[in-house]
TrEMBL record:
It comes from the Bacteria. This is Glyoxalase. InterPro entries: Glyas_Bleomycin-R_OHBP_Dase, Glyas_Fos-R_dOase_dom, VOC_core. The lineage of its organism: Bacteria, Bacillati, Bacillota, Bacilli, Bacillales. Signal peptide: none annotated. Residues 7-126 form the VOC domain. It comes from Pontibacillus marinus BH030004 = DSM 16465.
Length: 137
C-alpha cells in the first residue's frame, strides 16, 4: 500500500518574539517572510512553509533522547560536503551558534546550529534521492 502523504508542508517552531525571530531567519538563513502578526510569522525556507509561533519563554522544539541527550527535531539537507562546509562558515561569519562537523557513522556529515531561541537544527551533507529526482539536481 502506498502512502497518501506526499511531503511535509509546514513546520511549526516555537519562538519568544516572532518579529525578531523572523528577521533572524531572513538574515541568517535566507528565509522569505510571507506574513507576520504578534503571534506568528510565516516564512518560506528550504522548500517548505515555516511558522514561527509565539510561545512561552524557554520553549523549544528540542527534546531529550533515551540516553538523556538533547536532540534536534529537524534536519536540513545540502548538496555535498563542500556546501556543508560553506554553509557552516557562512553561519559562523553571521555569529550563529554552530557545532563542529560530525561523522556519525552513516553516509555524509552533519553539524548542528541553533536559532536565537535555542531551537536546534541539524544539517546533513546528502540530498535525498527523491528530492534530487524531483528537482533535477
Amino acid at each position: 500500500m502506498s502512502s497518501f502523504l506526499r511531503r511535509v508542508g509546514t513546520t511549526y517552531i516555537p519562538v519568544t518574539d516572532p518579529e525578531l525571530s523572523s528577521t533572524w531567519y531572513q538574515e541568517k538563513l535566507g528565509a522569505i517572510e510571507n506574513f507576520r502578526n504578534d503571534e506568528k510569522a510565516i516564512l518560506d525556507l528550504a522548500n517548505q512553509s515555516v511558522f514561527l509561533v509565539k510561545a512561552k519563554e524557554g520553549e523549544t522544539s528540542n527534546f531529550i533522547d533515551v540516553n538523556g541527550n538533547p536532540h534536534f527535531a529537524m534536519t536540513f539537507e545540502v548538496d555535498g560536503y563542500d556546501q556543508l562546509n560553506q554553509l557552516r562558515d557562512d553561519l559562523l561569519t553571521k555569529e550563529v551558534n554552530v557545532g563542529e562537523i560530525e561523522d556519525r557513522g552513516h553516509p555524509g556529515n552533519n553539524f548542528v546550529f541553533y536559532d536565537i531561541d535555542g531551537n536546534a537544527f541539524d544539517v546533513w551533507s546528502e540530498l535525498s534521492p527523491t528530492f534530487k529526482e524531483m528537482h533535477g539536481v
